[in-house]
Amino acid sequence: MPIILAIESSCDETSASICRDGNILSNIIATQKVHEQYGGVVPELASRAHIQNIIPVVTESLKTANCELQTVDCIAFTQSPGLIGSLLVGAQFAKSLALSLDKPLVAVHHMQAHVLANRIADKKPSFPFLCLTVSGGHTQIVLCESPTAMKVIGETIDDAAGEAFDKTAKLLGLPYPGGPLIDKYAVNGDANRFNFPEPQIADLNFSFSGVKTSILYFLQNAGKSNLYKEEFLAPEAERKKFIEENIEDICASVQQRIISILLNKLKKASIQTGIKDICLAGGVSANSGLRKAFYEMGEKYKWNCFIPAFEYCTDNAAMIAITGYYKYLAGDFSSLDVTASARAEW
Fold it and tell me: Model pTM?
């Protein structure tokens, strides 16, 4: 019954988790509020906050799990991808802890951990399964053949879906983080009121840059057109009034288009592979519109649908812990020479 202590510090959440024999006993997350005034994550401030938070978070994680540090069998940490300064804080802390306790070290890829978050709950997908991972920095379809064998079969060729949500929120004048606010406004909006284009990208890949541009022109033109035409450019006062009067319908229409891009590719992947166990993962999988549409598509095409609990959708150490657990069983350990990487491949 191995006990894994996991640390996550890839962006602006400092998190620690204890996993015993594949069961999550604690998952403590410290969210950094300092970035709200800047409209996005400031890397240097994120690194400093991790330094301040990491010891209290690990201590609380051990306390919640009723676990002594000396009984831990392995230290797992997020090695990549992410903000390099943030990753270095977690990596150096984990390496120091492993060295001082003479315990093995496991380096975890952040996106693989998002996929395996679907294996935390009692109801688990069977291998092989497909997972649509959607976050602020990544949009991928992953074929997961085992806990340690995954292959990206589709990914964005430009921007991520989460980035499209955040950019739209900024254009609408919504405070950071804006993605959840779009979801909130969309609940009461008419998703068919405004039409945004769905890119026709080959294979299973995604593209969101064109959608973002279409939304930008639409808002600059106060809803008159999705194309850039100087005669349509509206004065700032008119744009603000248009947004204020139509924000629910705008959010609903934008959200529907982003969701349709995601799920149409996922449907195509299921047809190509014949796989019916289908998962969502990543921060955007907490979006209520995406979850609802995913389950509706799953019912239509007879999928077995899986989505992690909300606390395991956004960045958290529990997903690092469950991944670390599987790597521990496989004997996939890292030396103390391992380094953090902002963009390491799978």
Answer: 0.93
Place of tokens 């288009």: 257
Amino acid at 82: G
9: CB partners within 8 A, 6+ apart = 15, 50, 54, 77, 78, 82, 86, 87, 89, 90, 91
Contacts with 111 (C-beta within 8 Å, 6 or more apart), sequence order: 81, 133, 138, 140, 142, 282, 346
* Distance of alpha carbon 42 from alpha carbon 46, whole angstroms: 6
Rounded CA gap, 7 and 57, in Å?
9
Give the pLDDT of residue 202. 86
CA atoms of 126 and 124, how far apart (whole Å)? 6
Classify 263 as helix, strand or coil: helix
Contact 263, 297 (CB under 8 A): yes
Q: What pLDDT, on the 0 to 100 scale, is given for residue 223?
A: 87
- In three-state secondary structure terms, 313 is coil
% of the chain exceeding 70 in pLDDT: 99
Domains of the chain: 3-118+311-330 (3.30.420.40), 126-307 (3.30.420.40)
With 80 as the cut, is the pLDDT of residue 277 above it?
yes
CA distance 127 to 115: 12
Distance CA 239, CA 2 (A): 58
Task: Answer yes or no: are the C-beta atoms of 320 and 115 closer than 8 Å.
Answer: no
Contact 239, 273 (CB under 8 A): no
For helices 288-300 and 179-186, the axis angle rounded to 10 degrees is 60
State the average pLDDT for the chain: 95
- Contact between 67 and 17 under an 8 Å Cβ cutoff? The reply is no
Q: Please say whether the beta carbons of 136 and 147 come within 8 A.
A: no
How far, in Å, CA of 216 to CA of 239, rounded? 11
Instruction: Name the H helices within the chain.
Output: 43-64, 84-101, 110-116, 161-171, 179-186, 209-220, 236-273, 288-300, 317-330
